[in-house]
Each structure stands twice: as C-alpha cells, then as structure tokens.
Write a structure and sequence with these properties.
single chain; about 130 residues; mainly alpha; about 75% helix; MobC_2; Plasmid mobilization relaxosome protein MobC
Length: about 130
C-alpha cells in the first residue's frame, strides 16, 4: 500500500529556508518517529498525527552508566566463575593458595562495583526527589 502511494507522488515542491528554520524543522523531525524528513513534513502539512519522543537526560545518563557497570560486573563475574572452576579442580596446595588470592581480589572488585552502583543510584534518586 505504501508503494502505491509513493508511485503517485510525481509533483515536487521546492522550499527555501534559513539555517535557523531548517535547524528547527530538523530537530522536530529527529524528535519524531518519522523515518524520513519528507514523511514528517507531509504529516505536518496535512495535519496528520506526529508522534514525538521525549528524552529524559537523567534517565539517559543512568542507562549509560548502568550499561558500563553491567559490562564490568559481567567481566568480574566471569573471572569469579573461572577461579571457582579452577579451585574445584586443584590438587596441589600452592596453586590452591594462588587461586584463593585471585578469588579474593575479584571478590573485592565486585564489591567495589556494587558500591559504585549503589552510590550512583542514590545520587540519581536525590536529583529526582529535588525536581
């Protein structure tokens, strides 16, 4: 159905805008769910509904920080699992002590990252409560 509509579009409109006008239209277009600028302008001209998105910068920041922390936690968890597997297969005591030492280092790193998540979440909560 979309192809049929497009095939009937043989007329062009040329419109000149100032940089400021174009920047305004472009920012509104980028905030919409339209895939093409022409679709956005067509909807606007013919008064069709335009769905806009709303970006909450504090949520964006939280998501970005959470993605980084989650990635680090996955790495640490992977290291802890590898050490645990190694500990379960050990037969020699000196190697066992080394693995326990490495395990303790990873456990501390995990604890520090969990504290960072808690601290970051607390800061965001305080900011939201002040809004």
């Amino acid at each position: 159905m979309m192809e049929r509509e497009n095939s009937n579009r043989s007329r062009r409109i040329t419109l000149r805008l100032t940089e400021k006008e174009y920047a305004k239209i472009e920012s509104q277009f980028k905030a919409s769910t339209c895939r093409k600028l022409s679709d956005y302008i067509r909807r606007h001209i013919f008064s069709r509904p335009i769905t806009s998105t709303y970006r909450n910068q504090s949520l964006d920041d939280l998501m970005e920080e959470t993605v980084v922390l989650s990635s680090e936690l996955r790495s640490i968890g992977n290291n802890v699992n590898q050490i645990a597997r190694k500990v379960n297969t050990l037969k020699m005591i000196p190697e066992f002590k080394t693995q326990l030492f490495l395990f303790d280092l990873e456990r501390k790193a995990l604890s520090n990252k969990l504290e960072a998540i808690n601290s970051h979440t607390q800061k965001i909560s305080e900011q939201w409560l002040q809004s």
